[in-house]
Design a protein that fits this description.
The protein has two helices and two strands. By secondary structure, the chain is α+β, with helices and mostly antiparallel strands. A two-stranded parallel sheet has the order 1-2. Helix 2 links the parallel strand 1 and strand 2.
Length: 67
């Protein structure tokens, strides 16, 4: 994220399974904008899936998707 952060998302950076705080930022964004009743994600290039952006959504939030 650049210097201008209108949503204040940087303040919510938190890494559980991601490298750069994406877990907290995604949680913050979806709390603000909402999501589908049955949310689904797709992530490319996750290598072994241990450290990635969508693992938090899958394991802690119950989302379905493909990695």
């Amino acid at each position: 994220m650049g210097a201008h952060d209108p949503m204040g998302a940087r303040a919510h950076e938190r890494s559980v399974f991601s490298q750069l705080g994406d877990d907290g930022v995604l949680e913050y964004i979806f709390e603000r904008v909402g999501h589908a009743a049955e949310p689904f994600f797709a992530e490319l290039g996750v290598e072994d899936g241990v450290e990635c952006t969508t693992r938090y959504l899958r394991e802690r939030k119950g989302w379905r998707g493909i990695q």
